[in-house]
Amino acid sequence: MKILVIDDEQTMQHLLRLMLEGAGYEVLTAPSGEEGIRQIRTQKIDFVILDVLMGGMDGFAACAEIRRFTPVPILMLTAIAGSEADKVKGLRAGADDYMVKPFSKQELLARIEAILRRSQMANVQVGSEWVNGALELNEAMRTVRVTGKPVALTRREFDLLAFLLRHREQVFSREQLMEKLWGEQAYNVTTRTVDTHIKTLRIKLGEAGSAIETVWGLGYKLVKR
């Protein structure tokens, strides 16, 4: 398993290398977003750890560019306990998870394992296609289209949308969605995390996103169109 660390601080590169190599991962490093993108384009990378605050191209811009050509899992790191807007920005750019420094080796490895587990589950083809008005989702191909145009979603956003489509008109609480989508890792997230993913999903789907309705006091549902 080859992990690329994109961070302009050599101290953090060294620390992450020690943590990851100690867990059996092969580690590559890049001092900038531009160099990280070059490495991803020229070799097989299985996982990316991407710092937000870097000189030149920042982590948000680098993440968005990476998502233009590969679905490689991305964990974003920041030294600032940012606002909800920062997390939404990272998720919208295509990150699979977002972690604040400082962090322990145990937390880092647990988050990587959780993302990889979801990634492996996402690769299982179930052969189901769903159409809901202008929205089309193909679970086997992991594709989403709105009025025929492709929509780029993170793995978690796709899984959330697919789950709601499979259970149209059913209301699910935030806690139920956490359990269904995060499984045993649900303790790592909060109900606000679910709200953030719903908000980002609605934005990405445009007019089709209005099918995801808030049922006040209960949770969310996707209505038939």
UniProtKB/TrEMBL annotation:
Principal location class: cytoplasm
Example GO molecular function: phosphorelay response regulator activity
Gene Ontology biological process terms in this record: regulation of DNA-templated transcription
Cellular component, GO, one term: protein-DNA complex
InterPro entries: CheY-like_superfamily (IPR011006), OmpR/PhoB-type_DNA-bd (IPR001867), Sig_transdc_resp-reg_receiver (IPR001789), WalR-like (IPR039420), WH-like_DNA-bd_sf (IPR036388)
Entry keywords, A to Z: DNA-binding, Phosphoprotein, Transcription, Transcription regulation, Two-component regulatory system
Response regulatory domain: residues covered: 2-116
Modification 4-aspartylphosphate occurs at: D51
Pfam families the UniProt entry points to: Response_reg (PF00072), Trans_reg_C (PF00486)
Domain OmpR/PhoB-type residues, every copy: 127-224
Location of the DNA-binding region in this protein: 127-224
Keyword Transcription regulation (UniProt): yes
Compartments it resides in: Cytoplasm
Name of the molecule in the record: Two-component system OmpR family response regulator
Taxonomic source organism: Planococcus koreensis
